[in-house]
Amino acid sequence: MDINNNVLFFDCLQIEEVQIAMPWGYVAGKWWGPKDVRPIVSLHGWQDNAGTFDALIPLLPKEVSFLAVDLPGHGLSSRLPNGVAYDHMGTIYMLQCLQNEYKWETMSLMGHSLGSIISFLYSAIFPDKVDMVIGLDALKPQVRNVPKAIESLKGEMEAFYLSDKRNLENSEPPSYPYDVLVERLVSSTFGSITKEAAPFLLKRAIKESTKNPEMFYFTRDSRLKSNFNLGTPQETTNELIKKIKCPYLYVKATDSPFYEKKEFFEQSIQAFKEHNPNFELHFIDAKHHLHLTDATKINGILSDFIIRNRGLDSKL
User: String of b and e for 189-222 (b: at least 16 CB within 10 Å)?
Assistant: First the structure.
């Protein structure tokens, strides 16, 4: 199952680097905690990687395992084949492959941003296969301005073509000093990732240049930047919410945008409250990467939810 592994320890907590075979290559990840306990599968945000949970997981119950994965094209995971675009359904298929590979009857999910949206969709599509969800900052697929989304498709496709062409040519991306990469990561997230937090992500996201000594470049697939998503109508989201059966914890950062009109977010919260008696909502004073920069503000909330809904004895 694991085609490669490397065991480390962090404050007596076992951490194992794993690679899980997929039809197109493999998904890399970090398995935190005992291997005989079914893990909470942890999904990072867009263009981040499994390192995004390095500050949070050590603060959660030690008896519980976590499998933080690099989504396809991110971190240390394989890229999708040339000519193939990244989308939500492809990531959902990756989760299904992961669950089938480990032969888990049910799966527990924790996600941030894009990872939270994927967790939402997976728990709605496979309600009997998910026993709990923790969503951080993003709740569900956004409602987009359709005319603007359609208008952007031409530019997105042109950018995708250029990125795919560079991948085919196997050319090295531009490289920079490490400190510059830190600054670029901080500025690209408008300070949501701090200088202190940036190394958690960069250690799985960069390589040293073969052309310029002591310079580094981002290794994530640049095709990820192309977004062909036209959005999800609110009516569809409401129907998806009705399908979700499991306990669901959602934590929203107050100093973070909704990425859509607030009314759609509020409608979704109301739908959850009406259809899921085990839905919990918390607002935290933090920015988008709250789990990375403000882990001590949410670890108690998450630990309590996990213990109540997973317990501390979930042996495989």
Answer: beebbbeebbebbbebbbeebeeeeebbbbbbbb
Q: What is the sign of the dihedral through the CA atoms of 198, 203, 209 and 213?
A: positive
Query: Choosing from 65, 113, 116, 119, which is the catalytic residue?
Result: 113
Pairing, β 248-253 against β 216-218: unpaired
**Alpha-carbon distance values, 169 to 100, 165, 262 (Å):** 35, 6, 43
Q: How many domains does the chain have?
A: 2
Q: pTM value? A: 0.94
* pLDDT (tens digit per residue) in 205-230: 999 999 998 999 999 999 999 989 89
- On the 0-12 / 13-18 / 19+ scale of CB atoms within 10 A, 51 is buried
| Same-domain status, 260 and 240 | yes
Question: What percentage of the chain reaches a pLDDT higher than 70?
Answer: 94
Shared domain for 53 and 90, answered yes or no, is yes
Strand order, beta sheet including 279-284: 2-10, 13-22, 25-32, 66-69, 40-43, 107-112, 130-136, 248-253, 279-284
Q: How many CB atoms lie under 10 A from the CB of residue 244?
A: 23
- Residue 270 in domain: yes
| Domain residue limits at 196 | 147-225
pLDDT at 3: 39
Do residues 181 and 252 share a domain? no
Specify whether 113 is catalytic: yes
DSSP one-letter code for 11: T
60 and 95 assigned to the same domain: yes
Residue 79: give its domain's CATH number: 3.40.50.1820
Residue 314 lies in a domain: no
Average confidence (pLDDT) over 37-48? 97
